[in-house]
Recover the amino acids of this structure.
């Protein structure tokens, strides 16, 4: 029971150890010059001992460090335990992988902090100032170029480029060419798609367009090109890469920068007050890059032949030349980090100073943030090479030993065919479910959705709906590699069902569901799942291991749309029962 005390006694007790200090004693004296003018006071620089600086920085750093630890460590522990306990295999290069994972954590911590301090203010400032000082056409051009620039700065793009080393040129010439000889053009094609999405998303913010028609109009060419690619055997092998590129783009750089620009423009135009402001651009940034890569693959088929690609690869392999210094670790990671961030920063700087003639507020903070971003990207790239990609590829390559013979494992298959297949698919499901639960961006989306729907769609329900969708998506992606059926057999019916559910859903749930797919593909999940899928496919001698990320994108769309329809039905039923009870009470109260 709480104890009651008199207020006077409370005041007496808390003032026993207090000393009263005059305000005049803690303010500097006023000094005047010979003419009697007041000399402005300049406070001396604060000098901190190392222990004082440590105590100030420790809480700040530990929170951001633990955020990345929660995203990386559970997945790494799961993969390692699965390999030890289920597959009964040792972790190769465990020390290197551990060091790589630590580098991923530190790199992401620095990168995300630098992004908030250095790059995000650029997007917000541009969004506010651009509409006031430039024509709409110039605004859209800046949004388009920004969409291209942020694509090169995405951390997961490095994982996409690294995937080219696993593809065998004899099995999939066009896929090999896209990931090796045309890797920069591939990223540019993805960037053009993101740029188009930024333009369309900005126009949507300005004019308040519904997302539904945009989804239908975007999916029409996407699925049409998918059907065409399935009719050409060599192009069919690029289908998984094209759809996976849609998942790679919606990362921690693209979404915040493009979104802040679009919302800022809409707010400056007086049209940013809608509760749906901000939704939809992630969806468009996922779909347009798919079209870009599909068109690039078709162009490549007209520009060269599979025989020419194979001959060129064999010639390159025959001519053994030591790699240049810039193609070796750690120089390649350093150069990649600089190329990803510096051009984007220079572009934003030129727009601000030359086009808008604006001065930067707190330039020291911006320089500090950009330095952290570059440093974080470099450290993350090193961790990606030696940690995430190595661990994912190793785990993925060993999972098929549960149901088939592979060269890397003795006494395989480890289980019967049915049990081994069940273990492999369950491995992918748990990985997808757990990785999504650990995604920090999903928690933020859940709070937004809960507020947007006035509690009808609770945060935890959204988190579990998205996680279940990703889990089943990854399981279907692994099944596609195991049973070697076409990815189109999953994508076309899946998106047809998504369109059907979209037609019957309200605008709020359509925005939530289609954007939830982009939230699940973070800088940790994408490299890990990509490396796992490619390692899995390589162990099974599959032509390619792409497509798992594509299934991880369609899964949450279907699960959230279905959950939204169920919530809509519950709300309508509740309203109907309330109306019936009110009508019944009015009938009973009516005079005879």
């Amino acid at each position: 029971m709480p104890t009651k005390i008199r207020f006077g006694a409370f005041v007496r007790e808390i003032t026993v150890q207090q000393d009263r200090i005059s305000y005049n004693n803690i303010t500097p004296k006023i000094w005047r010059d010979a003419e009697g003018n007041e000399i402005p006071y300049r406070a001396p620089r604060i000098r901190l001992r190392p222990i004082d600086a440590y105590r100030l920085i420790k809480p700040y750093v530990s929170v951001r460090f633990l955020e990345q630890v929660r995203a990386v460590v559970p997945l790494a522990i799961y993969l390692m335990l699965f390999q030890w306990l289920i597959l009964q295999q040792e972790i190769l290069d465990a020390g290197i992988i551990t060091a790589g994972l630590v580098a991923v954590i530190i790199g992401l911590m620095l990168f995300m902090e630098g992004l908030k301090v250095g790059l995000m203010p650029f997007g917000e400032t541009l969004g506010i100032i651009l509409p006031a000082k430039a024509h709409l056409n110039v605004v859209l051009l800046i949004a388009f170029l920004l969409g291209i620039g942020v694509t090169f700065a995405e951390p997961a793009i490095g994982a996409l480029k690294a995937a080219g080393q696993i593809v065998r040129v004899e099995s999939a010439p066009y896929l090999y060419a896209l990931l090796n000889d045309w890797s920069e053009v591939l990223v540019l094609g993805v960037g053009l798609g993101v740029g188009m999405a930024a333009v369309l998303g900005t126009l949507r913010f300005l004019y308040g367009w519904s997302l539904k028609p945009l989804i239908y109009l975007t999916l029409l060419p996407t699925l049409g090109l998918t059907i065409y690619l399935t009719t050409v055997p060599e192009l069919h092998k690029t289908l998984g890469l094209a759809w996976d590129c849609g998942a790679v783009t919606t990362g921690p750089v693209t979404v915040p920068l493009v979104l802040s620009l679009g919302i800022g423009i809409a707010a400056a135009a007086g049209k940013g007050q809608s509760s749906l402001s901000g939704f939809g651009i992630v969806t468009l940034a996922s779909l347009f890059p798919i079209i870009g890569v599909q068109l690039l693959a078709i162009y490549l088929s007209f520009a060269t032949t599979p025989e020419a690609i194979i001959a060129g690869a064999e010639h390159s392999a025959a001519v053994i030349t030591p790699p240049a210094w810039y193609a070796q670790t750690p120089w390649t990671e350093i150069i990649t980090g600089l190329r990803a961030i510096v051009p984007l920063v220079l572009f934003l700087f030129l727009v601000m100073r030359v086009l808008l003639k604006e001065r930067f507020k707190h330039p020291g903070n911006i320089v500090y943030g950009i330095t952290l971003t570059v440093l974080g990207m470099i450290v993350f790239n090193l961790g990606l090479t030696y940690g995430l990609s190595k661990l994912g590829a190793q785990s993925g390559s060993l999972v098929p030993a549960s149901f088939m013979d592979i060269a890397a494992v003795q006494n395989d298959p480890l289980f019967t065919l049915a049990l081994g297949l069940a273990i492999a698919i369950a491995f992918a499901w748990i990985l997808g479910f757990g990785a999504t639960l650990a995604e920090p961006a999903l928690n933020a989306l859940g709070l937004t959705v809960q507020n947007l729907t006035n509690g009808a769609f609770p945060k935890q329900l959204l988190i579990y709906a998205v996680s279940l969708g990703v889990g089943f998506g990854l399981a279907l992606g692994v099944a596609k590699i195991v049973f070697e059926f076409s990815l189109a057999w999953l994508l076309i019916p899946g998106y047809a069902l998504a369109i059907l559910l979209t037609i019957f859903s309200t605008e709020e749930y359509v925005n939530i569901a289609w954007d939830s797919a982009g939230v699940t593909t973070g800088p940790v999940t994408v490299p890990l799942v990509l490396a796992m899928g490619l390692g899995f496919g390589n162990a099974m001698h599959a032509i390619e291991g792409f497509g798992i990320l594509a299934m991880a994108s369609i899964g949450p769309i279907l699960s959230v749309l279905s959950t939204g329809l169920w919530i809509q039905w519950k709300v309508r039923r509740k309203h109907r029962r309330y109306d019936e009870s009110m009508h019944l009470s009015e009938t009973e109260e009516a005079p005879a």
Summary: The chain has a mean pLDDT of 83.
